[in-house]
Design goal:
This is Serine hydrolase-domain-containing protein. The chain is of the alpha/beta class. The protein has a single domain, classed as Rossmann fold (3-Layer(aba) Sandwich). It contains 10 helices and 11 strands. The strands form 3 sheets. Strands 2-1-8-9-10-11 form a 6-stranded parallel β-sheet. The chain has a 3-stranded antiparallel β-sheet with strand order 4-3-5, with no helix packed on it. The chain has a two-stranded antiparallel ribbon with strand order 6-7.
Length: about 290
């Protein structure tokens, strides 16, 4: 693939991270794919104010409009702050992030795909759904800024790493995502629970699920870099668009082989998968990626 034809991928870091930190952790991985993909890392919208000596147990929040005393390279950020309200999660600050991401899409695009990690994956799922139906949120339904075109076409694909689907009604309104999605989950993930991962998988009509042997982090071994290369390039002209028959899994244990060959494993048909039943026989997690 020529450099001018590289796939542009918008990357959303997880909570307590930022573009500088997350891109630094994935530097070698991204460099190994730089001939086929351009990864555009963006900061989450809100600063997280860390505890101080006087308030050691208090973690508050602020926005980009308020100054931060931490070096921007290390300042932890978030896309929103989850709170329970009448049985639903109320994602505080979500609308500000939707507005920020619309501006990024409008002024820095076009982007071919989106890749989100953890809370970034949850946020990415909302953006994917809004590009499929901009009328679902007033920010995306608004007319274009002067000098820009809006809306862009839906993404060619989305990668959700350690993702989940918040219960906030604004997010649930986009359930039924049509964009092809790749869900990358850690067998040893102790942060995002099984049912949370399942909630995002079943919200997508065209999901593919892959596991790595680590925990709550993106996989970065060479086998995964080769897999992502094949997956990304499969969405080029004449490609198979991520199909498992052409883009093979990065590694398959004997126990998983039958399940991975089953079409229903990649197209779940609305059924909730038993995620841990597909784990490796050892059940042990190894650190093959980067931690948060």
């Amino acid at each position: 693939m020529d450099k001018m034809e590289r796939t542009r991928i918008l990357v959303l870091p997880g909570v307590a991270q930022n573009a500088s930190l997350f891109s630094g952790k994935l530097k070698t991985f991204c460099e190994s794919l730089e001939d086929v993909a351009e990864f555009v890392f963006v900061d989450p919208t809100h600063h997280i104010l860390v505890p101080t000596v006087n308030k050691p147990f208090e973690i508050t929040r602020t926005t980009d409009d308020e100054p931060s005393t931490i070096d921007p390279k290390y300042a932890p950020r978030a896309w929103w702050f989850g709170e329970s309200q009448t049985g639903f999660y109320d994602c505080k600050g979500l609308d500000a992030s939707v507005a920020r991401l619309r501006m990024i899409l409008e002024t820095q695009g076009p982007f071919d795909a989106i890749w989100g990690f953890s809370q970034g994956a949850a946020t990415a799922s909302l953006i994917v759904g809004l590009l499929e139906g901009p009328h679902r949120h007033p920010v995306f339904a608004a007319p274009a800024r002067e000098g820009y075109s809006w809306p862009p076409p839906p993404f060619k694909f989305a990668i959700f790493n350690s993702g989940f689907f918040p219960k906030d009604p604004r997010v649930r309104a986009v359930s039924g995502i049509q964009t092809p999605s790749l869900h990358v989950l850690g067998r040893g993930d102790a942060v995002v629970a099984d049912h949370e991962s399942e909630s995002l998988i079943v919200a997508c009509h065209n999901p593919r699920v892959e596991f790595h042997d680590g925990g709550h982090h993106p996989p970065t071994k060479a086998s995964w870099a080769l897999f992502f290369r094949d997956y990304i390039t499969s969405f080029g002209p004449g490609g198979e668009q991520g199909g498992p028959s052409v883009v093979l899994s990065p590694k398959v244990s004997p126990r998983d082989t039958l399940k991975l060959r089953s079409p229903s494993y990649f197209s779940l048909g609305g059924k909730v998968p038993k995620l841990r039943s597909l784990s490796a026989s050892s059940g042990e997690a190894t650190n093959d990626g980067v931690s948060t």
